[in-house]
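Usage example:
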Amino acid sequence: MNDWHDQLRVSRAPFIPSVVWVAATPPGEGFVSLSRAEDETCWRELVDSDEPIITQVDDGATAPGRTGWRPSSSCSQPSLVAAMLDTLDVREEQRALEIGTGTGWNAALLSARVGSYGHVVSVEVDPAVADDARRALTKTGYPVLVVTGDGTKGYPADAPYDRTICTASVREIPRAWIDQTRPGGLIVTPWGTDYGDDALTCLTVHEDGSASGRCGANLAFMRVRHQRRDYRDPTADQLDTAHTSQTTRTGPELFEITDFTRAAFTIGLRVPSCYLTVEDLDDNHRRIELHDLGSRSWARISLVRRHHPWTVHQIGPRHLWDEVDTAYTWWRQAGKPTPDRYGLTVTPDGAHEVWIDAPDHEHRWPLNL
Ligand SMILES: C[S@@+](CC[C@H](N)C(=O)[O-])C[C@H]1O[C@@H](n2cnc3c(N)ncnc32)[C@H](O)[C@@H]1O
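Running the assembly step on the lines above writes:
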C-alpha cells in the first residue's frame, strides 16, 4: 500500500459526484462524461486510484453526454493531496483557510486534522460546485464552513488563519491571503508563471506583512478563474506577415526549454506574460507556441524530424521566441538552476521577488506580473 493511503484517512468516494469526466480517445479530443449508474466498475476504479478526477468541465456549461474542453473542477490526485497537506503541516486546533473547495474532500481531510477545536473555512467560486461540497461535507459529518465566492479575497470574517492552502494555482499571491494568515503562519499553493507548470510553494508570513519561502515539486493544477492563461491562434493573413527565421537549437535543447525540471521554470520567471503550448501533430511534427494576449504577440517553432534547423514564426511587438532563447542562454550560464532552488518573497506592497537559494543571492529579481 502507498504512503498516501495511510495519510488520507477520509475516504474520497462520498465526495465524488456520480457523473465525472475522463479524457476522450484518442487523447486531445476533449473530455467525455462517465456515469456511475452506467459504469459502476470504471467509476469505482477511478475513485480508488491515485489519479485526479475531473468533476466539472467548461465551468459547468457542458452537459454530460457532450464533449467538454476545459476541466474546471476536479478532485486532486491523492498522493499529491497528501504531499500538499504534509507541506502545510496543519495541526490539531488550528484555523485553516482553503481556496478551491472542489468536491470538499481536501476540506474534510483538513477538518479531520484540526479536530473539533480547530476551524476550517473553504472558499469555492462556482456556486453549484460549492453546493455539492456542502452537501457531501454535511453528510459525512465534517464541520467545514463552505463559502461561495472568489477565494483570492480569502474570507476575512474568520481570519486570522494559521494555515492557508490553495488547491488551484496562482500567478500572483493575493494580498488577502497574507493579510489573513497570522505572522508565522504558512501559505501553501501551486504557484508559477504563464510559462509551463507550477511549483508547490510554501510561504511563511512575517510581522511586517511580507511572506517568503521556497518552491518545490512540479504541479499541474488548474488556475484560479480570473488568472487563467489563454492562447491565440493567428489568422492565415497574420501568418503571412510573420517575421520568419530559423533556430539552430537542437531537439535536446528544445526539450530543456519546455521541461519544468530543466529550464522552463526559469524561463517563465525571466520572460513575463508568455504562455507556452506544445502540440504533437504526429510522430514527425511538433509545434511549440508562445502566446501573449496582452501585447498580441505570438511565436511558433515548427519542429520536423530530420529537417533541422527549424523554422520560427513571430508576430507582434514582442519577439517571444527571441526572449525565450535569451532566457534559456541565461539559465545555462547561471548553472542550470532547478525549480527547487528558487524562492519567492512577496513584499508588504505586493511586489514579487524571486531568488535562487537565498533572498540575498546575486541572482534575484522582481517579477513583472
Ligand atoms: C483542483 S479543484 C480543487 C480540489 C478540491 N480541493 C478537492 O478536494 O476536491 C480547484 C477548484 O478551485 C476552484 N476555483 C477556481 N478559481 C477560484 C477562485 N477564484 N476562488 C475559489 N475557488 C476557485 C474551481 O472551481 C475548482 O473547484
